[in-house]
Amino acid sequence: MEMLSNAVLGDLVSRSISFLFAKYEKQETEAVQEELQRLRRLLLRSGTILEEAERRLVANRAVLRQLNALRDEMFRGCYVLDAVTCRAAPGGGDGRKDDDHGKDVEARHRHTAVCSPCQGEGKDPGVLAADGASCAAPLGVLPIVGPAHIGKSAIVEHVCYDERTPPGRRSQIAMEMLYSAVLNELVSRSVSFLLAKRRERTAATAQEELLLQRLRGLLLRSCTVVEEAERRLVTNNRATMLRHLTALRNETFRGYYVLDGVRCREEEEQASRRAFVLSRFNPAKRARVPSGDPEDSRARALRLRELQQAVRSLEAMIGDMMEFVVFLTSHYPPVHRQPYSAHLFVDKCMFARHMEKEKVLEFLLQVEPPGAARLGVLPIVGPAHIGKSTLVEHVCYDERVRNHFSLILFYRQNNLMNETVASFRDKCAIKHQTDNKASGQRLLIVIELLEDADEDTWNRLYSSERSMAQGSRMIVTSRSEKIVRFGTTDALRLKCLSTEAYWYFFKMTVFGSDDPGQHPKLASLAMEMASLMQGSFLFANIGAVVLRDHFDTQSWSRAVTRIRQYLQKNVSLFGEYTDDIKDKNHPRFTWSLIKQKPDRYCMLYDIYERASQEEVPEIPYSDMLDGCAQPNGTYEILFWKSRIPPYLNYVCKCEIRDM
Known about the structure:
Helix content is 55%, strand content 10%.
């Protein structure tokens, strides 16, 4: 054990001295001067850009964020340049290296001149006494330290063959020296291995920070292009541009998802490390401190791969957008003023359905070839509450559609059972009417169904409507795939948002104008909640109301736990997770997300829609999730009130019972 301690101590002392001498070597080299010159050129370029930007009126929020980031980096660069220049000022002297070299030689001399425990007056310190008469200690230990292949074994071998060493002790001394040399080599290699692993982790952390910074900059650039494109009227005549814009938007969602995911996982790892912090009261915690954990290395490698992939994808996408930006700014003037923040844009407008909207507009506004059917029919199919009515409503609010059709009619029923031509027209609501002669008496009829339509009824209605003016159109929406057979063109199928797009929507809905990066723990909990909500727009909006009212970690942690319990309760009763996307007849069980010990639970039955002008219940569902007391019984509640066209109210029948 004493030999091991001496070997470890010797290696650590040698490495420490080498590190300290390397630390204070001269810093002003030719490479440093080149970097300083490059930094000065970059500061000139950034200053030119900022001065030019300050002379102009910039209204784009993403551009302003980029300018702020550039300004901060320019300030940081000036600070670093001045700090390095001040440290390099004359007065440090060039004789320090010589002094350090002299101290190094002197220290090494002292290190190699250490006497053995057997050294006596007038005796050669290299002589090892056989009888121990002149040595007070029973066994002397001489550490011999040096780099690999420096000659440690050779000098030991020569000492052992010295005639002054007693013959009886020669083999014993040789073995002891051999053990010491082997042990020293093993310790040296172990320390080198640990230091190399430490350097690898440090390099990986630095690489991860660089990738994160690069990804943030790319996201700012992509948001600038997307926001600028959404301020302009890009028609479907440029289908390639629309596909390009959609691809960039999807890559932006994916980039934000990766960025927030990495930040959340880092927060979880830091929380885990804090849980195993060194404690002088609990020795077990000292034994459980993670160090070089393979799981940690794998997690870091996974983060690096995700970041590299996201950065490469965004760089390639933005690199291909140069022509797009040129054509966008040259041929498409702005048509309206963009809201001043992204969360208002998400809150008040249809989200992530731009490509679908353009497909519907293309169907409605296309010029018919000679001999085509007089009445074109477009089926739109999708699950419940996925946004079919919202999509059609936004299309009908488009000025191009209102100028193209003289009359827009809406029919909203469960099905077309037993409908006649007269009763069908009586139940249609007029959405828009104009006397514009350019519309040519063209009609647009929108039929919104929950179920399938009877074949005979459909054929009768379609035959009667074929006498409408050339260019008239019909849109049929339903949850049933069977209505696809009525279409004269390919059906449009609405699906749930991608995981990345849904997280972006939920994040903007919950945090609003707050930066999730300033609340890493809340962002981690929000990302977990988003994964549990299964793409539901209704639950995202309702959950956002509750979470914004309780903006603290404890309430959000409790909400995540309640949602998990809610899902497990429903899967144990019905064999599957229930949500508002699937059209099921069985109820849903839920209870307060905020109260520490809920005393009541709520059974939710089918969610149905009511128009904005119809009467709705006064009790909102968010109050129940918030823990507000409600009497036992069965009654209707206001599940959600939409704030975007067609401003539908979602009403639900519920039954409240004691736990």
